[in-house]
Amino acid sequence: MMPIPDYDQIQGAPKPQPRVIAIIPAYNEARFIAGVVLETRRYVSEVIVVDDGSTDRTAQLAQAAGATVIRQPRNMGKAEALNAGFRAARELNPDVVVCLDGDAQHDPADIPDVIAPVLEGGADVVIGSRFLEKRSDIPGWRIVGQHTLTFVTNLTSGIKTTDSQSGFRAFSPLALRALRFHTGGLGVESEMQFHIQKAGLKVAEAPINVSYLDGNKRNPVVQGLQILDSIVSLVARRRPLLFFSMPGLILAVAGLVMGVDVVLTMNKFGILKTGTAILSSIAIIGGLMLGVTGVLLHALAGFVERVRSEVDSAVAARLEALK
Known about the structure:
Blueprint (H helix, E strand, L loop, with lengths): L19 E7 L6 H8 L5 E6 L6 H7 L3 E4 L6 H13 L5 E4 L11 H9 L5 E5 L10 H18 L11 E3 L1 H6 L9 H12 L3 E5 L12 H19 L1 H30 L4 H49 L1
Parallel strand pairs: 1-2, 1-4, 2-3, 5-7
Antiparallel strand pairs: 4-6, 5-6
């Protein structure tokens, strides 16, 4: 009996198309959402729009354009919108998930380039970067702000990217299962970088085009400070030794140096440098307190992470048993 050839070896046989799911978080994007959905549908199998408590017609227009719409009961922030989208996408068993914004700043025509490294097995997360190539339509103030936030995020997360704040990203099924977000408000992209590093996911970048059609919906200075605040909070929670103990060590060493100077001056000249002695004591005590705080929070963070992991595993097992 002749062996039956594999499906993909049959001459001219069409190859199965990958299942690509797009997730679009949206808040009051009635002006753009229908066009974004229609254009995105050209490159994906299904579009999921997460309406984050919009007060306009975002949900209705997205649904009319052919998207599956998940409506949040109120404005809960981008992190919760992504969590909701990820939960829905997991049920669809995709080969790759791609996220983009609902304000038309991202070009859906870039989707094939962004998802390619995941489909080829070279990455678990692909970040669509605005800065891999020169883009003349990016305002100068935005470039400075984004590079500053990227530098801080890279330094504290341990992962090097060129655009840590990009919302245009692709995720493998492994990343889809591994990632959960907790940051309120802005800063979810920075939080994602911490989770990626901890989960050991492979990261790649792909160049994208952007167009800022909606101007500045938020004050850029306020937005940047909010993201920076989120990054600082993340570092405090995720890297307490870095955030507390390292400054504490530096402060304690500085206090010791001042203390040595006080002792040497006293022995040599018989003069007590009272101000320096007080500063030395404050620095040493403060440094020790920061150091102990960092160690305790590090231990507590590890315990909380273990409990959260066990709860997630138990919930996943329960859901699997109910299917």
